[in-house]
Design goal:
Transcriptional regulator; disordered N terminus; mainly alpha; globular; Arc Repressor Mutant, subunit A
Length: about 180
């Protein structure tokens, strides 16, 4: 990554080739799970830069992307919990940051999605009497209930794994 030479302006000015490659590789992997390439590029940038937060204008500049594309990506990433808005007193710009544990934070945020989806499914159940749709909606509601509880266990397991010493072999509880 290239930074300005002046200590008063030691902010990132452009991405070096290796960093750019990481951002694009991350975005390619991100797209393979049916997500937006720009979402992947923005998330990768926020993960790889050594700055506590970036403005949407800086994100657009560093990624050589339109502000509209960055705006759409940041809204999407905030809505699912991958990034967070950050405010700077007296500044009306939009700033974004990523948590050190972006994946655990996502897992926590996913529970809110499950609660919203479960409420939607329950609303659908009140609309139908036919056995087929009711069975499908009931299974969806049961799945959301089960997964919501499982997320708590999964998050606790993740935090224990994350905080364990690196030289301690992980317990494989999937077998």
């Amino acid at each position: 990554m290239t930074t300005a030479q002046n200590d008063d302006d030691a902010r990132l000015t452009e991405l070096d080739e290796a960093t750019w490659s990481f951002v694009e590789d991350f975005a390619t992997s991100w797209v393979s799970t049916n997500n937006s390439r720009m979402d992947g590029r923005v998330l990768a940038l926020l993960i790889i830069v050594d700055e506590p937060y970036l403005s949407s204008a800086r994100i657009a500049e560093l990624l050589r992307a339109s502000t509209g594309a960055v705006s759409t990506a940041t809204r999407s990433l905030v809505s699912v919990g991958f990034i967070k808005r950050h405010s700077v007193p007296g500044d009306r710009s939009h700033y974004f940051r990523v948590e050190d544990d972006v994946w655990g934070n996502f897992l926590s945020g996913e529970r809110e999605y499950l609660r919203r989806m479960k409420a939607t499914v329950l609303g659908g159940m009140s609309l139908v009497d036919a056995a087929g749709p009711r069975t499908r909606l009931r299974n969806a509601e049961r799945y959301m209930t089960w997964l919501e509880g499982y997320h708590r266990k999964m998050l606790a397991d993740w935090e224990a794994f994350r905080d364990a010493p690196d030289d301690e072999p992980p317990k494989d509880e999937t077998r």
